[in-house]
Amino acid sequence: MLTGRRVLLVISGGIAAYKSLDLIRRLRERGAAVRCILTRGGEQFVTPLSIATLTGERVFQDIFSLTDEAEIGHIALVKECDLVVVAPATANLLAKMAMGLADDLAATALLATDRPILVAPAMNTRMWDHPATRANLATLEARGVHRVGPNTGWLAEGEVGEGRMAEVPEILAAIEGLLAGGPLAGRRALVTSGPTVEPIDPVRFIANRSSGKQGHAIAAALARLGAGVTLVSGPVALADPAGVRVVRVETAAEMLEACRAALPADVAVCAAAVADWTVANRSAGKRRKQAGAPPPVIELAPNPDILATLAAGPQRPRLLVGFAAETENVVGNAVEKRARKGCDWIVANDVSAGTGAFGGDANTVHLVTASGVEDWPALPKTEVARRLAERIAAAVQP
Ligand code: CTP
After folding, report:
1. N or C: which end of the chain has fewer CB within 10 A?
2. What are the extents of the domains in the chain?
3. Which of 305, 333, 344, 352 to mutate to test the pocket of ligand 1 (most atoms within 8 A of CB)?
């Protein structure tokens, strides 16, 4: 609930402005007070009358309106709110924010505010992909501006691409995350990350190329939405994510034990690249070369499947998400893996040589759920994590 919280909503000129009307309704239903600044561009898409009716407040449009300045003024407008939401945020308004321009009421309010700002970008794919927009976004994010979306889908121009404004439930989840302790407040999440390491002897081991970047980013994203997160991680060269309880393990057996100890959890995301086999004839002392003797034989024994064990266990998390690292037939294998392991969702990614998924910063994934397969575009791992966390938050809403 957002009872008593005050949102200043800036609606700029994009077709997605129609969704902002629904956003106002949903915010009001949750008890928030909403005031709205409508830009000149925004006026082309939605009317002040619709907004005034939904907010129950007058709509603020013109910086030079004496009545506004006399009654409230733009400084008071930005002071009397807990969060400024820009939805839709056009490429133009984002550019103005990045530059610090103050040539209309919206831009002036955004420059004058010391409140958190959340932007929901909405624009044509080419504008979104343009280096200028990307640089503006990077500048704004470096200044602490929060962002939700955009999504991939049908755009108003009749083409498919990235640039579509986030859906209202996603924007609401982001607002709740910033204002009410997060949509996952009070929820417990378990995340596995990194490789496991299976010792051959005290100095040698079998491991894999997992960097832990994706799993760690997911733990951080869930924590940002308010979840209490336990991250069970194999050896990685990454800093612990802020606000997350980290349990360090080496082997698959230790990882399973740590996961069991972290239950009950509402959500578990198994992003670790768990070794399928452990060394059955692990030696207590260092194995030595012996002149004339054949090389030693390493005997393997299967490791427990952590994801499948959680799925079949008495404390199965309500939402169980697995990963599928594949080199061929990515989606087909992931669909089969989801059924075989008994989890709810599978995030499938192609880890063939050359994709850069292992160890890299970007990932191209497919989300496999009971209702089908979604192909996500190539995204930074942090962005995959943010989107997945938002989806998880929406799925575990009471
Ligand atoms: N997983 C696990 N425990 C294991 C192996 C895998 O929890 N012993 C989890 C991973 O964390 C991931 C999912 O299972 O969420 C799929 O991992 P993947 O390596 O793609 O699949 P495998 O189980 O190894 O299956 P296959 O060898 O058929 O690809």
Report:
1. C
2. 6-179, 188-395
3. 305
